[in-house]
Structure formats: C-alpha cells, structure tokens
C-alpha cells in the first residue's frame, strides 16, 4: 500500500519526472499519426492496385497469347473449383498513343489493353474509375452524349475541378468537326482569293490569327445551334460494323455523326493537374487519337489505327493512369491478327480471375500453377504483380517505426537519468522505509510503479494526442496551409484530395505497450539501486 | 537486574537468560576507509530486561549509535550476536530482519526521519502499510487510522494529523516519530539522541513521553545520548567508552 501512496505523492510533487514523459507522449503521438497516415496511403494504394488488377491474373509469356480462352476458362474453373466467381479475357500489348494538340503531335508510350466490356467490370473495380456515370454502371465504347462528371466522383466535394468535361462527348466532337470544317473552308476561300495569302496562312503568322478570329466568330454564331443539336443524339448508322470502321466501307465517314472504335485512355495520358487542383485536358471524350501497336505475327509489324476517346480511366495510381489505354478486345484481336482464320478461335494474352470473398488467393494461385505448365503460363495474385511496390511500402513503414521508436527509447534514457536523480534525492526516505521494515522488493516496487505511472501517463497522453491528430489531420493541414500560405499536401502529386488515415487498434496497442515497457524498463536500474541501499547508509545520507 | 560487563575476549554467544529481552554478546564492528580500519565496537556485551529503560551514554565516536543500529538490525556486525527474547536475530535472512524491524522493534532518530511527502497521520500509519499488503490494508485501514489517530492525540498532536513534517516544530516531529515507532506494538524501542535537535523544553517533553511509556506500558527502551542529565532519566546507565561497555 505504501508503494502506491508514495508513487502517487512522488508523481504529484516531482514535476520534473512528468516533464520527462513529454518525449514519450510526443513519440507515441508521432508513431500513431505516422502509422495511421502510412496505413491510409498503403490501403489506398492497395485498393487502387486491386481495383485495376483482378484477384488472380492468368497470362501467357508470349505477346501473341494463347488460343481459345473459353477452354482455358473452363480448365481454370475446374482447377480452382468454386472459388472462381468471375473471369474475363484481356489482350495487352505495348503501343504508342498519338494525338494532336494545336497542330502539334504528342506521342505517349502506353499499354494497350483489349477488354470485354460486358465482363471486365465484373472482375475488378474498373467501372468505378470511369468519368461517365452511365459507364460506371456498364461500360460502353460508344461515345456518350455529354454528362461526364465535372466533379471528381472519387474525391467527392462540390467544386467542379474538371470544367472542361462539361461539353465532352458528342457535343465536343461536333464542335470540333465544325471548327475544322470552317477552318478548311476559310483556308480554301483565302487560297482562292489570294493564293499567296493562303500560303502564308498555312505557314503561320498574322494571317493565321486572322483566320482564327474569323472562325471563332462563325463558331460563336453556331455555338447555340450546336448545343441545341447536342440534346438530341445524332442519327447512328444501323450497321454496327460500319459504325466501328466506317472508313473501311468505302463511304466517306461523317465525324460529326460517327465515331471510330472507342478507347478509354488513362486520365494521366490526356490531362495534367495545375497547382489550383483543376484538371486541364489535352484530349476530351469525342476527340480522335491514333494508336500504333504490334501485330501478333512473327516478326511483329507495327500497325496504326484511329480510335475515338469515349471516357477516361482514373484509378488514382499515376502508374496506371499514365499508361493504360482500354479498347474493345474483339477489335484489338482482329487488328492484331489474333483470330485464327481457319478455326475462328481468338487468342488472348491473359485471363483476369475474380475469386469469392474470403478465398485464399495464394492457395488458388498454387492450384492453377500446378494445373498449367509454367513455361507457357504465369499465374500471379494482384499482390504478386505489385510485390516490389508493396514490399517497398512495408519496408518504409518498418524503417519509420524503428526510427520513431528510437525517439521513445531516447525518452527512456531521460526517465532513467531523472529516476537516478530521484533515487539519490530520496535515499534517506528509502533508509526510513527500510528502518520501518520495508523489504527491498517493496522499495524497488515504488520506483517501478513510478515508472509504470509515468509510462501510462505519457503513453496515454500520446495516445489521445495521436488519435486526435489522426482524426483531424485534414483540418490541421488546412489550418497550416491557411496560416503559412504554403500548400502542405499537393493533390497534383498524390492524386488524393485528402490525407488518408487508418487507425489499426493492434498497431496502436503495440505502440502504447512499447512506450509503457520502455518507461518501466528505464526505471529498473534506479529501482534496483534503491533496493540495494543499506538502511544505515541511506539514513546517514544528506 | 541486568548487568553490562566488560569485554570478554573469545566469548561465545550464549542463549539469553529468560529474564532478558535483548542480549548482546561480544559485538564487534569495524569500518574501513581505504587502508584505514576503524574499530568502533570492540566486543560489547549488553542485556536489557523486559520493561527496562536503559541509557547508553558515551562521547561522540564511542560507538553508541552503531550499537543501536546493530541492535535494531539496520546494520550487520562483524562478530558477536544479538538475541531478542532468547532468539538470535542478527543472523536472520533479510526478509525476517525486515519483519522484525516492522513488528518488534521501534526506532526513533535524532533527525526525526519522517517521510516529507506524507502527513503526520500517514507517517504514523507507514509501518502498518508496510506490514499489510494492499488487500489486507483495505480491511485494516479503518482500525489502523483509529489507532494512529489515538496515538497522535495522546501525544498532543490531534490538531496536526494532516500536517506535513515541514509544517511541524522539532518537538512535534519527534512526537510523530515516537508515535510511528509505537504504532506497530513493538517490544523494544530504540531511541538515538531523540532530543539532540530540540531545545531543553521540547527535549524534556520527549523524555517525559518516553518515561511515561516505560512506566505505564512497560515498554523496554534503550536511549542513546551523550548528555548525562538526559541519561539519568533512565533506570540504568551503560557507559560506552572506546567501543567497550562500562557499567555506570
């Protein structure tokens, strides 16, 4: 009993010891906040990665792929059993994306992915990442009649950060076609009246700006009409084949009413985010892009075709958003020559597999690896595919935790030093207690209990502080940004509008237990010293 | 009644006579400071009968405080023995020595040695808190508080129960220390210069308290002092000269 009483009295009268736990408090709070933010980022990243990759990816080593995906899917279902709830074939090839901005051709290296629009969204979160609400429900490679989100649907918020998408789709396409038509007519008219002037116009300079102004004036006049027309969908050709490849039919395609094969590029390929958080687009849904990719033959030959952008894909992982272009798998197979002319069987590169919730991915992966020859097929979980990235994040978290834990360890040395001072100061008290019959273990218990109290106080305060900061980190960020005028968290870098945090109770428990443990461990030596004091020597101490 | 004898070299510890509460035989103690050895006690024999009040007198450095510490088990002797009620206690394991200090021996010091963080009442309760574990203390707490409060009131400190030592006078602190020494019901009270830091009047009051305890409750007391006038308040005086006992 006297141990508790003296602990309590020492706590109340020795404020210097409480000061020593401030570092414990700060260490615990920092560890909780850093772990929460890191876990938030990690979770966000894993969600994004898992959003584009299905649970399992079954793929060929060869760019030419493997034939008869239906047979393969049957075999996969047989090997994996009831765990498989969805599958979709894909074709992925490296490609070059080209588009024109103000007369300048921009080329990007991309991964061209052919997907089955009916089943692809069923195996991953692909649909969630599209910009048109109807496409999020069911993807269509048909260009939409407007209605694209001007607000980032994943970030939430009220303020439109993508005003350019307001007129995207068929309205934008018609406007563009009209502009080009007017531009050509004006140029031809100028050439007819002044061949030299026309040359100058095509070569740039003042005459070009003059033509631009005239075109703009005409466009302004036709703008209202164009918008009105945009309300009604344009007449579509009845023949779907003609719609897909109108130029092949030998008839002249009307780009104001027809589109090329639809394509969904990653949003990072077509836009950039300025410092104010507004997305600026180089290409909009309705624009045409050219894609160059290899055929499936040996040796592969490069072929090009034109696609119409029908939506944007935004997983918030810049690696994907700046790299992927999705097109209909059937078109890609046909263009690459992946359909056997005799059997009519198409080849695919990979099959994306979705497993039932709770299925052990590694177990199913290993079953498939056993069932298919490894030299022909590779089977990987989504985590395997991003193993180095996830491992790097885990490693980063581990190193940060070690470094931060050292802060608490330093605090432990502070407690050790202060406790030694207190033991020296209290030597006579220790002698008195021993003269009253207190045992050595009891004396040690006073200081161990003191350390435990300090650890609990420090860790408890750190826990409260850390949880409060983690819960309000975005408000704190806004406050700091308001005070300093500096952007602390730049969404154009992270593609997140909010700092994500996840509090893991187990991690928090370990941090608090570790901090309390360090405080108690730091009091062990001083406690032993106190316990070993001889009563007479302690009583004589001044 | 009892006798203090001169050193008897080679004496062997003998069982204490039944009439003796405390028996010290051939007690030796030396301190080392570097190469120097200071022999403080050179074979002390001492007996204390139950209910006896004995003063140990001697000059500074004669070893009287050391003798008291050895009798109170606060220190270990180099040779010799200490018996309490016929039982040898100086060679007991530490745990048993701690228990004896708590239950059988009360000690009062010149510098009071009160715990500064505790109130007068809590200081008096301290030996009982040390004796009982947490749960036992929860059961005994009320009775212990009543006992301690009665003791302090008896010593005229009824109004000072919740005062910290720094708020008390020297005489009051020493009375608190005596109350603390008595609260556990000891058989033996060892007082080391209890009036050394007090003025004559306060010191006299303390001696009156000790004498009254001895008379009314038959408490056995060993009082160490260098002042002959104080020593005369006891039944018997033992003179310690250069580490040896002389009968006064």
Summarize the structure.
Chain A has helices at 2-13, 15-20, 22-52, 69-80, 120-123, 133-137, 170-193, 195-203, 206-231, 240-244, 267-270, 318-321, 329-336, 361-371, 382-385, 387-425, 427-435, 440-471, 473-484, 491-494, 505-532, 535-540; strands spanning 56-60, 66-67, 84-101, 104-115, 261-265, 271-273, 279-281, 288-294, 302-309, 324-328, 347-348, 350-355, 377-381. By secondary structure, chain A is an alpha+beta fold. The longest helix of chain A is centred in the last third of the chain and has 39 residues, at 387-425.
Descriptors:
heterodimer; A: 542 residues; alpha+beta; 3 domains; six-stranded mixed barrel; two-stranded antiparallel sheet; 22 helices; 13 strands; 54% helix; elongated; B: 248 residues; alpha/beta; six-stranded mixed β-sheet; four-stranded antiparallel β-sheet; 7 helices; 35% helix; 25% strand; globular; disordered N terminus
Q: Strand portion of chain A, in percent?
A: 5-15%
Task: State which percent range the strand residues of chain B make up.
Answer: 25-35%
Low-confidence stretches of chain A: 201-205, 224-249
Radius of gyration of chain A using CA atoms only: 34 Å
Q: Outline the biggest β-sheet of chain A.
A: 6 strands, mixed, barrel
Q: Measure the end-to-end span of chain B.
A: 14 Å
Report strand order across the widest sheet of chain A.
3-4-10-5-9-8
Give the proportion of residues in helices of chain B.
25-40%
The CA-CA distance between the termini of chain A, in Å, is: 27 Å
Average pLDDT confidence of chain A is 82
Q: What is the subunit organization of this protein? A: heterodimer
**How many helices of chain B?**
7
Principal-axis shape of chain A equals elongated
Profile the largest sheet of chain B: 6 strands, mixed
Shape assignment of chain B = globular
**What fraction, in percent, of the residue positions of chain A are helical?**
40-55%
Number of domains of chain A: 3
């Amino acid at each position: 009993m006297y141990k508790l009483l003296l602990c309590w009295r020492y706590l109340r009268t020795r404020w210097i010891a409480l000061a020593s736990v401030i570092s414990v408090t700060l260490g615990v709070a920092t560890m909780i906040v850093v772990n929460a933010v890191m876990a938030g980022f990690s979770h966000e990243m894993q969600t994004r990665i898992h959003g584009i990759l299905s649970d399992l990816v079954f793929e060929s080593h060869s760019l030419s792929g493997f034939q008869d995906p239906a047979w393969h899917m049957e075999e996969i279902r047989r090997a994996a059993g009831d765990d498989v709830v969805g599958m979709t074939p894909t074709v992925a090839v490296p490609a070059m994306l080209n588009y024109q901005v103000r007369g300048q051709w921009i080329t990007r290296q991309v991964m061209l992915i052919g997907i089955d629009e009916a089943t692809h969204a069923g195996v991953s979160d692909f649909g969630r990442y599209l910009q048109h609400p109807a496409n999020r429900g069911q993807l269509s490679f048909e260009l939409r009649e407007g209605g694209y989100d001007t607000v980032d649907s994943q970030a939430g918020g009220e303020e439109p950060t993508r005003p350019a998408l307001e007129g995207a789709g068929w309205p934008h396409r018609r406007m563009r076609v009209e502009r080009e038509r007017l531009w050509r007519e004006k140029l031809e008219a100028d050439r007819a009246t002044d061949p030299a002037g026309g040359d100058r116009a095509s070569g740039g300079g003042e005459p070009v700006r003059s033509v631009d102004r005239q075109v703009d004036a005409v466009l302004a006049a036709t703008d209202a009409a164009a918008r009105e027309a945009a309300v009604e969908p344009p007449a579509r050709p009845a023949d779907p084949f003609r719609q897909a490849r109108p130029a092949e039919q030998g008839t002249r395609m009307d780009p104001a009413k027809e589109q090329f094969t639809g394509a969904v590029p990653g949003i990072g390929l077509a836009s950039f985010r300025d410092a104010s958080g507004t997305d600026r687009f180089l290409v909009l849904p309705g624009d045409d892009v050219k894609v160059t990719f290899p055929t499936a033959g040996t040796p592969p030959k490069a072929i090009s075709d034109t696609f119409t952008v029908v939506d944007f894909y935004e997983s918030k992982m810049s690696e994907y958003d700046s790299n992927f272009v999705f097109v209909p798998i059937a078109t890609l197979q046909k263009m690459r020559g992946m359909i056997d002319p005799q059997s009519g069987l198409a080849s695919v590169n990979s099959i994306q597999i979705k497993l039932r919730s709770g299925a052990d991915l590694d177990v199913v992966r290993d079953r498939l690896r056993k069932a298919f020859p490894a030299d022909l097929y590779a089977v990987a979980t989504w985590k395997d595919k991003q193993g180095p990235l996830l491992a790097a994040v885990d490693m980063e978290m581990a190193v940060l935790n070690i470094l931060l834990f050292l802060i608490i360890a330093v605090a432990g040395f502070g407690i050790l030093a202060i406790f030694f001072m207190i033991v020296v100061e209290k030597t006579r008290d220790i002698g008195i207690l021993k003269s009253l019959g207190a045992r050595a273990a009891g004396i040690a218990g006073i200081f161990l209990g003191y350390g435990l109290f300090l650890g609990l106080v420090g860790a408890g305060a750190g826990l409260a502080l850390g949880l409060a900061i983690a819960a309000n980190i975005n408000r704190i960020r806004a406050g700091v940004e308001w005070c300093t005028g500096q952007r602390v968290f730049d969404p154009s870098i992270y593609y997140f509008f909010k700092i994500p945090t996840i509090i893991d109770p187990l991690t928090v428990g370990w941090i608090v237990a570790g901090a309390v443990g360090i405080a108690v461990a730091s009091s062990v030596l001083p406690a032993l010293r106190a316990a070993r004091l001889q009563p007479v020597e302690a009583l004589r101490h001044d | 009644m009892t006798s203090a004898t001169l050193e008897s070299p080679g004496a062997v510890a003998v069982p204490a006579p039944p009439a003796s509460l405390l028996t010290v035989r051939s007690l030796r103690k030396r301190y080392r400071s570097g190469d120097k050895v200071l022999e403080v006690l050179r074979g002390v024999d001492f007996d204390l009968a139950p209910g006896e009040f004995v003063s140990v007198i001697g000059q500074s450095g004669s070893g009287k405080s050391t003798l008291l510490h050895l009798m109170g088990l606060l220190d270990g002797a180099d040779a010799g023995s200490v018996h309490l009620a016929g039982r040898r206690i100086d060679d007991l394991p530490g745990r048993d020595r701690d228990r004896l200090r708590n239950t059988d021996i009360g000690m009062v010091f010149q510098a009071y040695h009160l715990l500064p963080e505790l109130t007068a009442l809590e200081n008096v309760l301290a030996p009982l808190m040390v004796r009982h574990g947490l749960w036992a203390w929860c059961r005994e707490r009320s009775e212990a508080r009543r006992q301690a409060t009665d003791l302090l009131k008896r010593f005229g400190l009824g109004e000072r129960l919740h005062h910290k030592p720094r708020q008390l006078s020297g005489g009051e602190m020493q009375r608190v220390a005596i109350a603390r020494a008595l609260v556990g019901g000891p058989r033996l009270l060892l007082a080391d210069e209890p009036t050394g830091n007090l003025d004559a009047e306060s010191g006299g009051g303390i001696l009156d308290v000790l004498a009254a305890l001895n008379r009314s409750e038959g408490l056995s007391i060993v009082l160490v002092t260098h002042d002959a006038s104080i020593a005369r308040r006891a039944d018997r005086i033992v003179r310690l000269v250069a580490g040896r006992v002389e009968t006064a």
